[in-house]
């Protein structure tokens, strides 16, 4: 009966249907047949296990209706009954498929107390890490049914970093068992049914701008639509030569370089303090950071201003990079606000920490970061990040453009290292990095009358 209305899966869909890991990822590009795979797997499980409870989640109800509910109504007509009010299909054997959406954190809170044996999170990268975790936490129950969470996904969206960490990078945190996770990469070429029914689809993907084409056609997780700092590169193969990467190996800071401190206050959200060195050519190096988070993305440690500055001062008094150095500080102008009593800056002064008011022009500040991240023709940027600065390295690739203010960064994201880095860059602004243009030979074939410019990268490469 199942084959009659499910059809024949392709090779990648078949791998997905047979996968029995606790957490199963599927997709990675457009047109891979992800929605079909979800519907097919839900039906198979409901037919095999009488009484099993399945849940299909998408970001909005219209997406649920268009991609799953309407099609499953057709597929299950005469087989399972649909309750319009409760948004649930019920099979004769007592198995169910429920449909719910999660557009924001408030929607995610509504899942508390729910229990499902099987959860399908469709287009998981469109939900935040916190939302996805709250939904996945409902995967429980005191019975003998399998317990699994299926994630279909494309590169991009606010959950990109979380899904990429679990299924692509396979970096796991405490409580996450690597053996529980598997991923099947599916490209449009794997979807033979789509290729036959709509041969122009792949041509449409091939005609996309490079960034979208890499993500949607080739399944690249390193570049995705909406990424704010798409130029950011973390390439361990170049940590030593410092070419075509922003992240590099730490080194001892020459005594003649200036040292800076940038700061963004936070309480329930993380605070961020970064220390920077500037070489003789104006290149910035983020050498240290202190990030006030609990280990949960965008959740602050709730330290008082005095506690934050006490810890900042301790770092500056003890760390070899900073001990005994003159440090120039720059911070969010908001810390001078004393409307509710004592300002945050007054607490900083008690710990002998001094700041200048940062230039809070957002667009200009982001452009300064872009200018510094740009590589010249030799592969050198004007900003480097020491590999020990984990908060910057984790959060900067996840920054997205705001949906309303299209030139600005989405402030709902974990943007605290980005903000204090922006203050730093605005305090020492530079002009855009422009690649050298070829010089016409004319009557000077040996280029003898053109002023020579000493490479600004020789000394840096020998540090």
The main sheet comes to: 8 strands, mixed
- Say how many strands there are: 15
Shape annotation? elongated
Number of helices: 16
Major sheet strand order: 3-4-5-2-6-7-1-8
- Proportion in helices: 25-40%
How much β-strand is present in the residues?
A: 15-25%
What is the CATH T-level topology of the largest domain?
A: Rossmann fold
Structural class: alpha/beta
Mean pLDDT: 87
Low-confidence stretches: 1-5, 445-463
Can you say what the CATH homologous superfamily of the largest domain is?
Answer: P-loop containing nucleotide triphosphate hydrolases
CATH architecture of the largest domain: 3-Layer(aba) Sandwich
Q: What is the CA–CA distance across the termini?
A: 70 Å
Task: Tell me what the structure shows.
There is one protein chain. The protein is an alpha/beta fold and 463 residues long. It contains 16 helices and 15 strands. The strands form two sheets. Strands 3-4-5-2-6-7-1-8 form an eight-stranded mixed sheet, sandwiched between helices. It has a seven-stranded mixed sheet with strand order 9-15-12-11-10-13-14. Strand 4 (88-90) and strand 5 (96-101) form a beta hairpin. The protein is elongated. 39% of the residues are buried.
């Amino acid at each position: 009966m199942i084959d009659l209305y499910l059809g024949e899966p392709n090779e990648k869909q078949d791998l997905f249907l047979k996968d029995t890991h606790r957490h199963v990822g599927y997709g990675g590009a457009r047109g891979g047949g992800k929605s079909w795979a979800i519907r097919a797997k839900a039906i198979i499980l409901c037919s095999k296990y009488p009484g099993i409870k399945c849940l299909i989640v998408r970001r909005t109800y219209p997406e649920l209706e268009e991609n799953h509910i309407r099609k499953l109504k057709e597929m299950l007509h005469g087989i399972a009954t649909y309750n319009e009010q409760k948004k649930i299909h019920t099979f004769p054997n007592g198995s169910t498929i429920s449909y719910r959406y999660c557009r924001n954190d408030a929607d995610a809170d509504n899942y508390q107390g729910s229990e499902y044996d099987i959860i399908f999170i469709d287009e998981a990268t469109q939900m935040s890490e916190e939302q996805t975790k709250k939904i996945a936490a409902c995967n429980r129950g005191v019975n003998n049914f399998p317990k699994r969470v299926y994630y279909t996904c494309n590169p991009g969206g606010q959950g990109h970093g979380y899904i990429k960490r679990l299924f692509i990078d396979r970096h796991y945190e405490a409580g996450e068992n690597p053996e529980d996770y598997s991923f099947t990469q599916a490209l449009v070429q794997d979807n033979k049914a789509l290729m036959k029914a709509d041969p122009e689809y792949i041509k449409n993907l091939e005609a996309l701008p490079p960034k979208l084409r890499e993500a949607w056609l080739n399944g690249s997780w390193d570049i995705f639509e909406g990424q704010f700092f798409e130029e950011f590169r973390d390439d361990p193969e170049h940590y030593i030569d410092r070419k075509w990467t922003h992240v590099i190996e730490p080194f001892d800071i020459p005594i003649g370089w200036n040292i800076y401190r940038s700061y963004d206050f936070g309480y329930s959200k993380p605070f961020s303090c970064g220390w920077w060195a500037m070489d003789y050519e104006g290149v910035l190096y983020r050498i240290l950071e202190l990030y006030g988070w609990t280990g949960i993305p965008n959740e602050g440690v709730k330290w008082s201003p005095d506690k934050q500055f006490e810890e900042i001062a301790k770092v500056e008094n003890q760390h070899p990079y900073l001990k005994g150095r003159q440090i120039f500080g720059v911070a969010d102008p908001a810390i001078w606000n004393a409307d509710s009593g004592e300002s945050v800056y007054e607490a900083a002064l008690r710990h002998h920490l001094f700041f200048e008011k940062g230039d809070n022009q957002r667009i200009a500040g982001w452009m300064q970061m872009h200018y510094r991240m740009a590589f010249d023709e030799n592969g050198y940027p004007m900003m480097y990040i020491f590999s020990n600065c984990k908060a910057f390295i984790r959060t900067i690739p996840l920054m997205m453009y705001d949906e309303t203010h299209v030139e600005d960064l989405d402030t709902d994201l974990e943007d605290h290292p980005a903000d204090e880095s922006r203050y730093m860059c605005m305090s020492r602004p530079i002009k855009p990095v422009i690649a050298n243009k070829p010089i016409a030979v004319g009557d000077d074939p040996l280029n003898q009358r053109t002023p020579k410019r000493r490479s600004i990268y020789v000394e840096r490469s020998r540090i």
